[in-house]
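Researcher: For the record, we're logging two predictions in this thread. I'll number them. Prediction 1 follows.
Model: Prediction 1, sequence and structure:
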Amino acid sequence: MSEQVRDAIVIGSGPAGYTAAIYLARAGYQPLVIAGAVTPGGQLVNTTEVENYPGFPEGVLGPDLMDRMREQAERFGAQIEYEDVTETDLSGPIKTVITDGGERYQAKAVVITTGSDYRKLDIPGEREFGGRGVSYCATCDGFFFKDKPIAVIGGGDSAMTDADFLTRFGSSVTVIHRREGFRASKIMVDRAQANPKIDFILNAVATRINGSAQGVESLDLLDTVTGETRQLPVNGIFVAIGHTPQTAFLNGSLALDKQGYIEVEGASTLTSVPGVFAAGDAVDSVYRQAISAAGMGCRAALDAQGYLTRLDPA
């Protein structure tokens, strides 16, 4: 059990967490980063080539980018622990964080960067072809499917936006939705339906993703009305059925919106509890990019630094 009261703890890793740690460490606060036990580094550790992160004109592998961020944070004095947070007490001037290993950490300031997770289809082939034809980020991976047939699964605004964006690359884009109607706003549906490169398969659910060592080759579909099955030839499958913010461990200790994202004050990273800050995809339900998460991690660190300075002006 750790009884030391630290200046700052960062819960989570990824671009937001590691950037917050870099800034706090360079300011002399020696933050503890509780990076997670299973996937430290966030969603990018499951991403192959990242071509849109500034400073890497030839691209960079997602795991390599996260390793370099972590090493940079450690260089300036951040301590990394690979555990999951299971319980918090964020009230009062000293915050308490408890991990799945039974460790109890305390700090004056806490930065939460636990991110969100893509909702999955949970069908055969999805995990196998992750990063080899199955994607959850059109802006990240659309370029890799130039002149290839693409499927987008979903019926909300994100699915319509992704489908419209992907027509820049794919030879065709097919939107697959389980119902006749859409959750998306009418203007987004109208825009997608007006795009000649977008086709729709409605009242259908994906049941299996097929492929080879070269990647995805087809998608099995089940008609929810007739019960008939069919196979759609595709090389890229973009799943756009929503995200789940990783905030359940907070157990009501911070104000969340109706979707479970942490609420912050305006353009700041201040949460509903003094001394607690939040950044990245646990807050951002709109942009969800590595670069925007990193920028928000920087802001969280500066907000936390300002808070700590006010606690101890000397």
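Researcher: Logged. Prediction 2.
Model: Prediction 2, sequence and structure:
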Amino acid sequence: MWMLSSGIRPYCDRPHDSKLIQQICSGLRPSDVSGTPPSFAKLMLQCLDADPSNRPTASQLFKHLGKWVSDLPSQFDNIEIPFVNLEKLSLKSSSRHEGAIYFSRPLDFISTKY
């Protein structure tokens, strides 16, 4: 959701290493992005909550997203702020950090203390 909002991949400007993992486990989250529709931003931030018990369940997401789809025709009459960054979204961006890796790999560098 954050990638749709920002137009870039999360943490693309830093290496995806044990330091980033530790920071995420300690509460690091991407911030909301200017130009994101308010209802989308609210749901995105709920999904990113550091406390898993505060995140919506799959059933809640299904219900929430279903409401968006059923309300879609009326939203053309009452348009929220559009995704202003969506047109710049590029998954092949050359501006990412050389240590930012967006595919599965073994995490052998992580010690068992995490």
